[in-house]
Amino acid sequence: MGSETILVLFDFDGVLGNTLPFIIKNAQEYATQMGIRVKVSEDDIKTLKKMEFEELGLKIGIPKARSKEFLKGMLELASKNEVDIFPGIVDVLDYLKNIGCVSCINTGNSRTTVKRFLERHGISGKISEIYDKENGDSKEEKINMALSRYGIEKCRCYMIGDAISDVEAAHRVGVKSIAATWGNQDFKLLKGSRPDFFASDPKDIISIINRNMNLTTAST
Q: Which domains are seen in the chain, by residue range?
């Protein structure tokens, strides 16, 4: 990779795909299959600090001893969902590819679900790599994997997420964080994590990266 290449890591749920309605439906359905009567609300998801299925399970009353079972069931159901892509995301991915950026996905979901989503929306060729649950539970670990894989400096890397955990992972690694406010996290909670930038619309990602790419290039 060239010294000026930008690495952009996207969270999947709530950033690329509008998965919130399915998360609520799937959690309700699988908890019932497990013999556990719960009522899952949008607020249960939006107030999670860590946007992971296991964390949601604990929040709604799934016993910790059965959290892996709940995770497996949620991943299986998610792989069958016909998830809509957020308006404007395709334009962002097209733009990033055209200017030579490397776009990857950093998710707690499964590769199967993400690949199906990318294929359904015709954007597989715009994503260089998927870092999923099989690469580990730690988002910062996956950021480091991508940095190492593409040989890109931390100052040229952006983690785009809709959750506190995405922003905190970026902070811990030392890369820039962009908080997507159209996602699944409550805005007040997301704001409290102090991301480097906010994007209220996907097109804001282009403006943020363009502006900071020019600044970074000028300083080298």
A: 7-18+83-219 (3.40.50.1000), 20-78 (no CATH)
